[in-house]
Every structure is written in C-alpha cells, then in structure tokens.
Amino acid sequence: MRQEGLLQLAASRLIGLVPTLLVLITISFFLIRLAPGGPFDAEMAAPPEIRANLEAKYHLDEPLLAQYFRYLGEVIAFDFGPSFQYKDWTVNELIARGFPISATIGGLAMLLAFFAGVLIGVFAALRQNTASDYTVMGIAMLGISIPNFVVAPLLILVLAIYGGWLPASGWDWTWQRGLLPVVTLALPAIAYIARLTRGSMIEVLHSNYIRTARAKGLPERTVILRHALKPTLLPVISYMGPATAALITGSVVVERIYSIPGLGSYFVQGALNRDYTLVMGVVVFYGMIIILFNFIVDLLYAWLNPRIRYDEGE
Amino acid sequence: MSKPVLRVQDLSVTFTSLAGSVFNRQERQIRAVDGINFELFAGETLGIVGESGCGKSTLARAILGLLPPNRGRVMWMGDNLTELDEEAMRQRRKELQIVFQDPVASLDPRMTAGDIISEPLWTFYPKMARLQVDERTRGMMKMVGLLPNQINRYPHEFSGGQCQRIGIARSLVLNPRLLICDEPVSALDVSIQAQIVNLLQDLQKKLGLALIFVAHDLSVVRHISDRVMVMYMGQAMEVSEKERLYRKPLHPYTNALMKSVPVPDPKLAAAARRENWLTGDMPSPYRRPKGCVFHDRCPFKVKRCEADVPPLRRMENGDRVACHRAEDLDLSVVEA
To answer: Which residue ranges form the domains of chain A, and what is each CATH number?
Structure first.
C-alpha cells in the first residue's frame, strides 16, 4: 500500500515533467534568437556566400518556426546538435566532457555542506541563545554574505601561494586539485544549511510530540535522532534540491578562478558567442537536472512525512 | 491511612521573560506555580481544576521534571525527583507517566501507532523479543479500545479520540504507578470525552494507578476524582474531598467556578448568570495582587484579605483551604 503510494507519486510527477520541459525549451529557444547578433558575427569578414553556406549548413536560413520544430525533434532524441563555436564538437560531447567534472566538484561540495551544515545547525540549536550558538551563527552569517569570488582568491593565496600545500588551480582528478573548489562551493551552503537546520530544529524541539518522547523516558540523544531530526531536515531538503542542481551544473565563477574545464565555463562562452545550440543544450540540460532534483526532493519529502504520501485510498 | 506515594512540597515554577529595549532590559517573572503542596495516595485520583493560565498544566509537567522547578520537592517513593540527575530521572519515568492535552500533536506523525506505543518497551528493555513486544503492544491496544490490526497505521489515520487512546496505551505500556492526565479530553468532542474518561477510570481501577487528572471542566473532574484541588494564579485555593467540595465549597473561588458551569436550561441559565458574581479576568500574572491573590475579584473580601496571604490551612474534616473567612462563609451549592 505504502510503496504503491510512493510509486504512483513518482509516476505522476514524471508525467508532469514533460510540459515543464517543453515550456523551458520553447522560451529559451526564442529568447536566445531575440538577442542581438548571431553565431557567425565574429566572422564578418567572410564573404556573403560563405556566410550563406554556413547558415544553410546549420539550417539558420529556414523560417524560425521550422528551426524550432527541427530542434524539438532533435532534443527528444537527446541530440543537442553541433556546437557553432567549438567546431569539431557536438554539444552532447561538450556536456559529456564538462559535466562529470562539475558534477564531481558540486556533488562533493553539497555532500560536505549537508553533513557539516546539519551538524553545526543541530549543535547551535541544542545550545540555543548561548555564546557558542551566537558565535557559530555569526560565522555562518559571514559565510553566507562573503561571495565566492572573495573566498576563492583568499584560499588560493593562503593555502596555495603562501602555504604551498595545494595547487592554485587546474584540474587533473586528484584530491589536491579538487579540495579548494569543493570547499569554496561548500562554504556558503554549509552556512545556509546550518542556519536552516538551527531554526527548524528549535521549532521542532518545541513541538508536542518531542515532549511526549521525553516523557516516555527516551535518552536525549534518541529524542533528537529518532524524533527530531527527520522533521528538522524538511526545509533543508527543499533547499538542497535546487541548490544541488545549481552546484553540479557548474559554478561559472568558481570554475573560472580555479581554471576548471567544467560545464559552467561553456555556459558563459556559449552565451557570449551566441552559440545557439550550446546555450540551448546547457539550458535544457540544466533544466532537466533541476527538475530531476526537485523530483527527488518530492520523493524524500514523502518519505520523511507520511502525511503527504499520496495514498488517500484507504 | 497508608503512606502517600507522592508528596509535593512547596513546588514553584517561575518563568522569566525579557521585556524592554536592548538598552533597558528588564527581567519579568511569572510565578506560574507558586508553592503547591499536596499528597497523593496509591489508587487515589486527585483532580486539579482552574481557569486557563492558572498553572495547572505547568504543575503537572513540573512534577514529572518536564519543566525545571525553581523551588520545592517532589517526593516519589522516598526520592526527591527534583534532585535526581537526568539518567536517574529517566529510569523513574517507567513509574511516572503522563497523557497530554492535544492528542494528535502529541504523537510523532512519522511513527506508526505500534511504534509509538512500543517505543518505551524497546527503550527500557532492549533485549525483549520482537514477538513479545508485538504481543504486548497489541494487548495494550485492545485494552484501550483500539483494534490491534490498526498497529501499522499512522496517527493522521486515526480520529482525535483514537489518538488519545494511543496516548493512553503508550503511557501505560510500562506499567507506571502514577499517571498524570493533563487535560486529556479538552480537545475532544463531548461524546468522546465520556468514553475517554470512563476508559481512564476503568484502567485506574484495574491497574491500581495513582492518578492526577488536570482539567478545567468541573463535571469531568467530579466524575473521576476522589479529591479536588482548585488552583488560581499558581496557588492552591482549596483541596477538598470531592463530594464535600461540590456540595459546600470552602473557598469563594471554588463557589464561583461552580456557578460558571453552563446550565443547559435557558430559563435556569438566566438565573444562574445573575447569581454568578465572578466577573473580569484573572489579573495579569506580572501584577499579582498583594495579600490573597483572589481578593480583587472576591465579593466577600475584608481588609485583612488585601494585606495578609491566607495560608492553605487544614480544616477539621481534613479538607484544606486558603481563605481567611472559610469558617464564617456558607457557600453551599443548591443543586438543580
């Protein structure tokens, strides 16, 4: 019965994704065409015949609607087309090259942020309104406020240049090169999750069933872990869905500073160069990832809270 | 008479709140429970009544150490509960249990009825066999009038009355000696109230529990109690044997409470309203009256009431009252 409820929920959500994606594709397709300039404007020197040849090759000479439906057909087959800028690459290949790197850094950062943030938040909540609570939350506020383009150079300066313990930038799949970007990405998320957790935990600890748990004679540790933690995590989980999606698709700034060939850098390059297919590919891919993570959040919610399981038939 | 199982002595709970701006911080204190004394015998039921905010729930929680008291002792089987460390108090919770006011919110919504009821078992007896836990849980469900096959349902799948039955089953699963019911029926429909009160009464007789029943509904308290304590602004106004209290209250406040019980007959209701002299609200707990806390609402007050705090003194028949004029007032209630 309960499993069925979760499966039904999953199925209905998956069907609901189709129109969302369609709207996303449509809007971004026409928006990028509205932007002034085109993919081959940098090659103005090229004679009109060559230009016309190029446009014909990429079907840019067709009516816009025809291009749109052609693109839609390709996307359904998971083919994002050739990149206009990176001449020998398809967008699929570019994503396949950049995404694993971005996803690794972002995923590790989120993992770190989740455990560190929840731990700090619970610690602060259990010492509510004491000096240690205020200290930890003050630091967390700093962590949220300081932008990563300040944190990253500082980390490089201290740990790489002065200390010489870590490489300053670059990417080669070793932990030494991964550490700084992961920490840079994780810091604001740690701070945010810590504050969310603290607030949520304090609220939960005041609820009646926590009082019941104490009255039952459970040790305080059990009260926290078995009864208070799950509901405390609800707001954290809903924050983490979109936040994870944003992190694993690559942070433009952080990837730039650490010279990491991730997905984020393609996004900027594509937009600047009016590389229609690359921008579209990254946007649609990003959209799918966001939708996927929101979907995971919904499932986690249902798991954490039996009251929103969609099993009304009883 | 045998020795009391529970002896509450001078128990006080004070809440501190901060008022004023950052530069002009003032600590304001509310004496929610103010020097309460009473005894409870095995198998006895003590009702505690009073208006909202009189401190009756706070008292209930302070007795069980769910709130830290500022002063006083809670003597349970020879131990002062207020001095026990966390672990020792935790062990005592096997004997001391409580049923809460809001039956639905008091159950963890993420646990099944079975898990809620059996959690104390596997906490205190981790080696108990699964089968035995299951059997005991189903037994408890049957005892409180739930169907054992509802064991895997979640609280939101039960009605309010059923949730309170889960709460009762949970509180009794470890065979406690003392059960405190903190307004267990005030959130329920009247028809369900009677069922739950009767259930509690039956269980008390069957299990020989000492029971403290907190409520603001006088008729419910009358139904279940042996003795009744009337509270006002954190203090005990009167502690009397039930029949005597309802026939001839000793304290003017008790009398006023009884007159404010709604009368179903509209003709009689009008007369009852005229006769009910208790007006206004309790004074702000920040500005508690000098002398007797009730004097500014009391039509029988004399000079002395404004200056001297009346002690809770024992009358000839064993009842206790905190009123200077208890002897010369006749507050008998004529019952319809």
So the answer is: 96-304 (1.10.3720.10)
